[in-house]
Structures are given as C-alpha cells and as structure tokens.
Write a structure and sequence with these properties.
- There is one protein chain.
- By secondary structure, the chain is an all-alpha fold.
- It has one domain: MetI-like (MetI-like fold, Orthogonal Bundle).
- The protein is built from 13 helices and no strands.
- Helix 3 runs antiparallel to helix 10 and helix 10 packs antiparallel against helix 13.
- The longest helix is centred in the first third of the chain and has 35 residues.
- Belongs to the binding-protein-dependent transport system permease family.
- It holds the Pfam family BPD_transp_1.
C-alpha cells in the first residue's frame, strides 16, 4: 500500500517583521483605462494645435517682420508703433470700447426674451421660431435689407416723419452709424444666444421658481434672485461668445452697410485687418492688428468671467 503524499503548496516568502510591504502592481486593464481618454481626445487636440495654435504663433511671429521692401526682415515693434499711430486703428479701438459698453444690452435682450418664453407667455411657441429666424440669414442679406430700411429716404425715416420726428442719417452720420450697425448685428444674432438661454433654463430647478411665485416675488425679483444665480454659468458663456461675435463676426455687415465709413467711424479691428491685407497689401501690419485683436478678446473675456463669478458669489 502506497503512502499518501499531499500536493506541494506554494507559500509566499514571509515578510520580515517591520519590513516594507511588497509593491502591488497596478492591473494592466487599469493602466489602459487611464490612457483611453487621451487616445480619444488626441485627434481633436491635434486639429486645434495644427489649425489654430500653430497659425496663431506664425501670425504673431510674422507681425515682427516688415512689409514691402523690408518683407521678411525683422523690424521689432515697428509694426505696433505704426499701428497705434494710425488714426483708423485708434478709431477701431474706441469702437471696441463702445462694444464692451453695449455688451450687457446685447446679452440682456435674448436673456429676457428667453425668460418670457420659459414662463410660457401667450404665443411663446411662435416667438421661439420668429426670434431665431434672423440667425439663419446671411450677413450680406441682412445688410442689404437694412440698407433699404435705414436709407435717408427709407421706410424708417418715413415712419419717424409721420410722428413728427425729423429724419436721421442712420448710415451717413459718423455719430450714429456705428450704433446702427451694432443694433443690426444684435438683431441678426441674438437668436443663437436665445437658444443657449433656453437650454440653460432646462437645467434650472423649477421648484425655485414655484417657491418664488408662492412667496409673491415680482418678476424683477425672480429674475435677480432666482434666474440670474441659477443661470450664472450660462450667462458667462453668452457674455464671452457674444463679445467674440461682436469682435470677429461683423465684417459682412460693415462691408455691406458702411464699408468702414463715414470717415472711418465704423472701423473695427477685423475690418482694419482686412483693409491692410486686402487693399494695402501690408500683411505684417495686418498680423500685428490681428495679434492686438486676439489680446483684446483674451483680456475682455477673462475680465468678464472674473466679474460675473464675483457677482455670483456675492449673490
């Protein structure tokens, strides 16, 4: 009769008393999961770097070179000195300051309209479509329409004359033209901001609105104490995107309605960039203007976010 032999048992070597615990190796699956998001994001990052950041860096570098006979020659800050000495560019910067002052109005209009639609005022479904309709029109079409409406002998001045008000030279008066163009731009583009606000309302806690209604809060009180704090992130987004749109998307309207006139009063940096590159063939100076425009958007955007965040914390 053979004796019974138990199977050998593998035993891990005993850890010395007080010694360090053996390092545990992370499972292979965990490491792969950690790098998986980077793999998915990499194509988008590559596109941004190649099509956005790299051309931006090339443009900034090009702004330090010369035009004409000095083409490709390093000129230091000469282009920026020329830029800020140009009255047209200084007018464009003043108009940027005007846009910043008018920005709260451009954001408040779609915000209030979205509030009324969310509160389901009579006809809110019709208003939703009507308000968005201008956003699908080309800036060239919008400019051509308002050229007819705002002409000195056009329908708007005819209506003003019917109520005893004198005609206004909407597009020919240097003190009025920039306001006319900005007003048309706001009318043509606030539909997109309206959609963003409506999307923000879908995340707002409806019980807060019900509580404000039960407490007898008026509409201004509801907007200030419930809607604005609840939509603070949405408001920040709309502020920044509206400002960027004003600085970079008004070329079509300016070209069709005023061509920068009268007397250069409606120049904005983007129109100045086109004029220097397309008409005067000064790409280096245009690159310098583009760099200044980028810095303006960066500073204004960060300042707006900081102010709105501070206001949200105070509320």
């Amino acid at each position: 009769m053979t004796g019974y032999s138990p199977a050998p048992v593998d035993r891990a070597p005993a850890r010395p008393a007080g010694g360090p615990a053996p390092a545990r190796r992370a499972p292979r699956g965990t490491r792969l999961e950690r790098f998986a998001p980077l793999v998915f994001v990499a194509p988008a990052v590559l596109v941004v770097v190649l099509l956005r950041l790299w051309p931006l860096l090339l443009g900034v570098n090009f702004s330090f070179t010369g035009d004409g006979v000095r083409n490709g020659t390093a000129v230091g800050l000469d282009n920026y000195v020329t830029l800020f000495g140009d009255p047209l560019f200084r007018t464009a910067l003043r108009n940027v300051g005007l846009l910043v002052l008018l920005l709260p109005v451009a954001v408040a209009i779609p915000g209030l309209l979205a509030t009324f639609i969310h509160l389901k005022v009579p006809g809110h479904r019709v208003y939703r479509g009507v308000y968005f309709f201008p956003a699908v029109l080309s800036p060239v079409i919008v400019g051509a329409i308002f050229n007819l409406l705002l002409a000195f002998d056009g329908p708007v001045n005819a209506a003003l004359g019917a109520i005893g008000l004198g005609p206004v030279d909407w597009l020919g008066d240097p003190g009025v033209a920039i306001f006319a163009v900005v007003g048309v731009h706001v009318w043509a583009t606030f539909g997109m901001a309206l959609v963003v606000f409506l999307a923000g309302f879908s995340t707002l806690d409806s019980s807060l609105l019900d509580a404000a209604k039960v407490d007898g809060a008026s509409l201004p009180q509801t907007i200030r104490h419930v809607i604005v704090p609840g939509l603070s992130r949405t408001i920040q987004f709309v502020f920044v995107t509206t400002m960027i749109g004003m600085l970079t998307s008004m070329f079509g309207l300016l070209y069709v309605m005023t061509s920068g006139g009268p007397a250069g009063s409606t120049y904005l940096p983007e129109y100045y960039v086109w004029f220097q590159q397309g008409n005067l063939n000064q790409p280096a100076l245009a690159s310098a203007a583009s760099t200044v425009l980028f810095l303006i958007m960066l500073v204004v955007g960060l300042a707006q976010i900081g102010i709105l965040r501070r206001a949200g914390k105070e509320d």
